[in-house]
Amino acid sequence: RKEVEQDPGPFNVPEGATVAFNCTYSNSASQSFFWYRQDCRKEPKLLMSVYSSGNEDGRFTAQLNRASQYISLLIRDSKLSDSATYLCVVTPYSSASKIIFGSGTRLSIRP
Amino acid sequence: GAVVSQHPSRVICKSGTSVKIECRSLDFQATTMFWYRQFPKKSLMLMATSNEGSKATYEQGVEKDKFLINHASLTLSTLTVTSAHPEDSSFYICSATGTPAFYNEQFFGPGTRLTVL
User: Fold this and answer.
1) Does A43 sit within 8 Å of B43, measured CB to CB?
2) By percentage, how much of chain A surpasses pLDDT 70?
3) Cα–Cα distances in Å, from A3 out to A97, A100, B37, B60?
4) Which of B:17-36 have CB within 8 Å of A?
5) Does B66 contact A at CB distance below 8 Å?
6) Residue A38: pLDDT over 90
7) Is the N or C terminus of chain B more exposed, i.e. has fewer CB atoms within 10 Å?
């Protein structure tokens, strides 16, 4: 089983729709969780950290479910500019900086 | 703040030559730098972790004699692809974390696209 798994998609949704995707992780000792966004041929950029209590940043909401070992990302009122690959990122150890990337979920927003 | 640069952004070379890629943290001290490789439509794969002043730790399956990593200062790490072959053509991305504490957030360079003919 992969340490971090994501549905590769692609998710193809109309502008204005709400879309959500999950990411599961296998190591229950994982400490830190993030969503990154990667545009085609560009480097990943941090979208948001994921806290135990869940967090929201504008149209984006991230949640963590430790019992079921998954994190989620919800995008409301999607924009064309949201089209990208969304990478789930997990840091498995509390004291190390090594992080593990999921393979990414491709999202395409159509007009 | 927290800007990471990479140079060159794109390089095309002949098979058998060596290519050096530089990764610099511009406004912070990068105690740890990471090197990733990404093939088209694939996920980022960690190649090695580099701590300033010590030898890099390579991931399983990554040849340390082929991918030489040097992290001689707190702001610079280099990756040298020795005797490059077409199968080494990929997008190489570095990232850095360090002081002040970034709570495990990594800052990525813009990447270097290597094409080996």
Assistant:
1) no
2) 93
3) 16, 8, 18, 15
4) 32, 34
5) no
6) yes
7) N
pLDDT tens, position by position, A90-99? 887 654 556 7
Among residues A96, A6, A17, which one has the least CA distance to residue B43?
A6
CA dist., res. A106 & res. A101, Å (int):
14
Interface of A with B in 9-28 (CB under 8 A): none
What SS3 state is found at B88?
Answer: helix
- Rounded to a whole number of angstroms, the distance from the CA of B54 to the nearest CA of chain A is 16
User: Is B90 buried (19+), middle (13-18) or exposed (0-12) by CB count in 10 A?
Assistant: buried
Q: Nearest CB to A99: which of B42, B106, B111?
A: B106
**Residue A71 contacts residue A88 (beta carbons within 8 Å):** yes
pLDDT of residue A95: 46
CA distance A98 to B1: 21
Instruction: State the pLDDT at residue B11.
Output: 96
Q: Is the pLDDT of residue B103 over 70?
A: no
Mean pLDDT, residues B62-88:
94
If DSSP codes are grouped into helix, strand and coil, which group holds residue A88? strand
Is the separation of the CB atoms in B22 and B110 below 8 Å?
Answer: no
Q: How far from A56 is each of A44, A75, A107, CA to CA, in Å? A: 20, 10, 19
